[in-house]
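Limitations

Structures in this collection are predictions, not experimental determinations, and the ligand pose is part of the prediction. Treat each record accordingly. The example that follows, with zinc ion as the small molecule, is included so readers can see exactly what is and is not provided: the inputs are given verbatim, and the output is the predicted complex.
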Amino acid sequence: MTTVETYILESTESHSRYYLGCNSCRSHVEVLVPKDREIQYLHGGLLVQDAFPDSEGFTPAYREQIIGIRSRYHICDKCWDETLGDDE
Ligand SMILES: [Zn+2]
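Predicted complex:
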C-alpha cells in the first residue's frame, strides 16, 4: 500500500492545520481542526462523531478527513465519486 502524505502544517493554541493527501490520486487538501476537538478525538478516546458532531456544524465529509488524518489513509471526494460512479 502506498503511504499517503499527511502531516501537520501549522499548530496554534486554537487549531491545527493538516496537509492530507489522497491515497488514490495523490491530490491533497488542507484541513483545519479545532485544537480542543483534536485532543478529545486523538488522545481522549472520543468517537469522531462525538468530537465533531453534525449539531455543531461538522459534516460527514469533514469527519472523513479527520479519520484520514488519524489513520493516514484518505480517499478524496473526487476519487470516491469515480469509484461510486462505476456502479451507476
Ligand atoms: Zn483523490
